[in-house]
Design brief:
This protein has 17 helices and eight strands. It is an alpha/beta fold. It is globular and about 110 Å long. The structure holds NADP nicotinamide-adenine-dinucleotide phosphate (NAP). NADP nicotinamide-adenine-dinucleotide phosphate binds next to α3.
Length: 487
């Protein structure tokens, strides 16, 4: 049974002082909620998967439900479709809940999070799998979301960005929480699939994002629209985000962040916008020629493994399956039904999981930070401060609050003196502070007033020094007799 008592403590498996942040002071409300959640979910972990109505997401939900260890929340854009799919897949109705979440709309993401909070009754989300995506390689012109972004950019990346920011504070309270972002070989250009086929994922200087990435700006790099590149760029963004969140939040929240490449699920509806001949021959090509093919069910097992396998508590990893060079093509592949070994290939099972290399673009931390700042400004995401958890002890809380107030006052006075540094950096770029504000522009000083102030200060200091030097210290008797000096 989950913890219900005077204090609610997470297990000791969390690192450092992480357990402190997971302590909750009991109130009648949260005790009631905890009991309600216990009655509703029992000991099941809460798993949110975006896009459970099809392909990989559907198979991941199926794998999780089969264990009986999870209550799966399917975040989907089409509840009617989901209802039919759940019926056909015979999802256990007591352990699967579909909720509307259209990733083409920030308002819908926010509504989903609010509904989710009510539904979970204070029980933190244990796992979040950011899986849903669209792939629009054949479009000549961008399609736009209700928020005015190119669809792949928002559905695949920006809305997941907002979703994670909304759910992260709650997830930090769960033991062994994980956020898994579905990346792709196409976002990782140190591979044939990612770097050998034009267009290659490349965010360049993020100029599109820097200008808000709203219609008519369709690409993150700010240049002309290319549907295949927009998809690959969105996957690169997700993989960079996974690393950045690991660096920023893993130690302080205990949440593990990972990206994955599930293999090429060549038969999935993701390729619905490709021409019919492509949809027919692509799976055959992937199965017998490149060896990158993986079936939907096996791909679902892979995403589920990262959600569930104790090995995958490791954070900051890009998980893939079937390491090493490809083997067994040609006749052997035919005999094995395309079970070719090699990164992303089918077969190999759970034990073929490995920590894959990430391209220079994915591990570019400086660019990832800019990506994070722009995406935060665009989506209005609110991220928790990347601080160590603080003890909830009431005495320490009061002392801490008073100390913080006094410190803040001193600090305000100190910072006032530095306001003259100006609003641009040495590279001529505008300086944006962590709270989003800009420092004031350089003050144009009145040279006369400034000169008079410096001169007055100089005379005051000199006079003090002269007085001390000429007169020396007061003799002891004088101090003893002078009532003013005694006080
Ligand atoms: N297929 C591959 O070869 C491959 C390879 C590497 C990585 N991936 C990644 O794997 C993930 C799943 O792909 P898949 O092959 O399973 O594709 P899929 O079958 O087309 O599934 C995509 C899912 O995303 C949902 N979705 C689309 N737009 C949405 C929106 N606006 N709001 C909410 N949900 C939305 C879809 O909902 P509907 O059912 O309503 O359309 C569907 O459930 C994606 O992240 C993809 O990039 C796929």
């Amino acid at each position: 049974m989950r913890v219900v008592g005077v204090l609610c403590l997470a297990s000791a498996s969390v690192s450092g002082f992480d357990w402190m942040g997971k302590i909750k002071m009991p109130t009648v409300k949260n005790l009631g909620q905890m009991m309600g959640a216990q009655a509703k979910f029992g000991d099941k972990k809460l798993l949110v998967v975006t896009g459970t109505s099809s392909g990989l997401g559907k198979m991941t939900a199926r794998a999780a439900l089969r264990t009986g260890d999870y209550h799966v929340i399917g975040a989907v854009r089409d509840l009617d479709k989901m209802e039919i799919v759940a019926e056909m897949e015979e999802f256990d109705k007591d352990s699967f809940t579909a909720m509307e979440c259209d990733l083409a709309s920030y308002a819908s993401v926010d509504r989903f999070c609010a509904e989710l909070e009510k539904f979970t009754m204070g029980r933190p989300i244990d796992r979040l799998a950011c899986n849903a995506a669209v792939y629009q390689p054949s479009l000549d012109h961008a399609k736009w979301t209700e928020d005015g972004h190119e669809q792949q950019m928002q559905i695949n990346f920006l809305s997941h960005f907002k979703l994670i920011s909304n759910l992260l504070p709650g997830m930090a309270e769960a033991d062994d929480a994980r956020v898994v972002l579905v990346g792709s070989v196409t976002g990782n250009d140190n591979t044939v699939g990612g770097g050998g086929v034009y267009p290659v994922a490349d965010l360049k200087d993020l100029e599109g994002l820097a200008h808000g990435a709203k219609s008519p700006i369709s690409m993150i790099d700010g240049y002309s629209f290319n549907g295949a590149k927009a998809y690959k760029d969105s996957k690169l963004c997700l993989m960079m985000l996974s690393n950045l969140l690991h660096d920023k939040y893993h130690r302080s929240t205990g949440v593990a962040f990972a990206s994955i490449y599930p293999g090429c699920i060549a038969e999935s509806p993701l390729f619905r916008e490709k021409r019919p001949w492509f949809r027919k021959y692509f799976p055959v090509f992937m199965k017998y020629v490149t060896g990158g093919f993986v079936g939907e069910e096996e791909a679902g097992q892979r995403l589920f493994q990262v959600v569930h396998d104790p090995r995958c508590t490791k954070s900051g990893v890009y998980w893939s399956w079937n390491g090493g060079p490809r083997e067994g093509r040609g006749a052997e592949a035919l005999e094995k039904g395309g079970q070719i070994m090699g990164a992303g290939g089918a077969g190999g099972g759970w034990d073929s999981i490995f920590e894959n290399d990430q391209s220079n673009k994915v591990v570019d931390t400086e660019k990832a930070q800019r990506l994070f700042r722009y995406a935060t400004a665009i989506t209005g995401a609110e991220w928790p401060a990347a601080n160590q958890p603080i003890s909830p002890c009431p005495t320490l809380t009061v002392i801490g609050a008073v100390t913080n107030m006094l410190n803040a006052k001193e600090e305000m006075a100190r910072m006032k003196a530095s306001e003259r540094l100006g609003d641009v950096d040495i590279l001529g770029q505008p300086i944006i502070r962590s709270d989003g504000s800009q420092p004031p522009a350089v003050e144009v000083l009145n040279p006369l007033a400034e000169g008079a102030f410096v001169a007055a200060k100089f005379f005051e200091e000199t006079a003090k020094r002269q007085a001390g030097g000429l007169l020396g210290e007061l003799p002891d008797e004088a101090v003893a007799e002078d009532p003013a000096a005694r006080t």
